[in-house]
């Protein structure tokens, strides 16, 4: 049942109050360090139960599994479990497997997801519980005046040296100046008209790894005073070694054949987030939600990712959808 407007609006105000004074994040996201179990549930279909110390607990996405736990799937049900040794198993209907115990057979297929997949996924899942770490200082609602909004890349790393820059502008905004700054000043500038994106050209000064870049777009019409400007957006370029590590991690996921599409995209989103590629992490999280649309944990993570890169309208929408489900 849909909640009354006041019951949705007030929690959003609470979110704003909680995060409005939070520090802004840089291009590389902060990992969440906390105690973790020996395994984590990555995908739940149907009825999945966790037997722990004589009690039975419903299995849910992201559930932390400890030594001695037993996972059981009901008829027409399935589950996927990622272990701390970075192996993934898939349980079919009517199956059981123990966690951290010997002598119990697991009627499951197995796959390896790379050396750091378990911790990477753990850090990603914990985003649903993180507070005060995103750039929601610009959280807002209601009618807006003419504006320019930087969309991508913002607060992220990028692969390669020729990213595409995207922004949104109101209909009244047409002629713009696009400028990239490095740590010493203007790196490259170009005037554009009637477009909402620009690909960084091959003949422009090279974008180097290890440098913090920023960019913005602003109006050039002299009759527009003061000029409209987007908020400054920040990005970095992955080094060759970082790019190789990223490709290796993604290849390890692609090589295994066990994971469901939802788990596959969740692991990929975790890897992109771990490497600071926020746009890719958002895209993969959205794909995971397409395959598992009722997954509230993934929806909460997506809202957090939107907020972290400054896409506050999208973050508000996701938080609103979560509140409507409660």
Features:
Immunoglobulin-like, 5-stranded antiparallel sheet, 5-stranded mixed sheet, 326 residues, disordered N terminus, 7 helices, single chain, alpha+beta, 29% helix, elongated
Query: What is the domain tally?
Result: 1
Quaternary: single chain
Weakly predicted, low-confidence segments? 1-35, 102-108, 131-143
CATH topology: Immunoglobulin-like
The CATH architecture assignment turns out to be Sandwich
Strand order of the largest sheet: 4-1-6-7-9
Name of the CATH homologous superfamily: Immunoglobulins
Number of strands: 17
Structural class: alpha+beta
Radius of gyration using CA atoms only = 22 Å
User: Could you describe the largest sheet, including whether it forms a barrel?
Assistant: 5 strands, antiparallel
Given the C-alpha coordinates, what overall shape results? elongated
CATH class: Mainly Beta
| Secondary-structure element pattern, one letter each | HEEEEEEEEEHEEEEEEEEHHHHH
Tell me, rounded to a whole number, the average pLDDT: 79
Strand content: 25-35%
Give the terminus-to-terminus CA distance: 9 Å
Helical run tally? 7
Percent helix among the residues?
25-40%
How would you describe this protein?
The chain is α+β, with helices and mostly antiparallel strands and 326 residues long. The protein has one domain (1-30, 113-326): Immunoglobulin-like, CATH 2.60.40. It is built from seven helices and 17 strands. The chain has helices at residues 5-19, 117-125, 240-255, 261-274, 278-291, 296-308, 312-325; strands at residues 39-45, 48-52, 55-58, 64-65, 70-73, 78-83, 87-91, 96-98, 108-112, 148-152, 156-158, 164-169, 175-182, 185-193, 197-199, 213-219, 233-237. The strands form four sheets. Strands 4-1-6-7-9 form a five-stranded antiparallel β-sheet. Strands 11-17-16-13-14 form a five-stranded mixed β-sheet, with no helix packed on it. The longest helix is centred in the last third of the chain and has 16 residues, at 240-255. Residues 1-35, 102-108 and 131-143 have low confidence and may be disordered.
């Amino acid at each position: 049942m849909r909640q009354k407007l006041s019951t949705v609006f007030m929690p959003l105000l609470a979110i704003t109050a909680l995060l409005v004074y939070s520090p802004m994040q840089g291009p590389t996201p902060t990992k969440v360090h906390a105690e973790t179990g020996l395994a984590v549930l990555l995908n739940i279909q149907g009825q999945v139960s966790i037997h722990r110390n004589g009690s039975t607990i419903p299995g849910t996405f992201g559930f932390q599994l400890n030594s001695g736990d037993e996972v059981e799937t009901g008829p027409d049900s399935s589950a996927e479990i990622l272990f701390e040794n970075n192996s993934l198993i898939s349980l079919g209907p009517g199956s059981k497997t123990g966690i951290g115990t010997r002598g119990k057979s697991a009627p499951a297929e197995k796959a390896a997801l790379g050396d750091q997949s378990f911790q990477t996924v753990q850090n990603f899942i914990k985003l649903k519980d993180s507070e005060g770490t995103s750039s929601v200082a610009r959280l807002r609602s209601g009618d807006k005046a003419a504006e320019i909004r930087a969309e991508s890349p913002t607060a992220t790393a990028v692969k390669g040296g020729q990213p595409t820059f995207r922004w949104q502008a109101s209909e009244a905004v047409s002629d713009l100046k696009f400028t990239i700054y490095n740590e010493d000043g203007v790196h490259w500038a170009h005037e554009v008209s009637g477009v909402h994106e620009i690909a960084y050209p091959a003949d422009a000064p090279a974008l180097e790894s290890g440098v913090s870049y920023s960019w913005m777009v602003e109006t050039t019409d002299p009759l527009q005073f003061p000029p409209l400007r987007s908020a400054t957006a920040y990005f970095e370029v992955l080094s060759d070694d970082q790019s190789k590590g990223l490709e290796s991690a993604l290849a390890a996921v692609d090589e295994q054949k066990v994971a469901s599409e939802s788990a596959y995209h969740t692991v990929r989103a975790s890897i992109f987030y771990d490497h600071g590629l926020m746009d890719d992490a958002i895209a993969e999280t959205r794909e995971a939600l397409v395959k598992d649309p009722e997954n509230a944990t993934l929806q909460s993570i997506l809202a957090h990712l939107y907020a972290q890169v400054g896409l506050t309208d999208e973050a508000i929408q996701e938080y609103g959808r979560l509140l409507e489900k409660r």
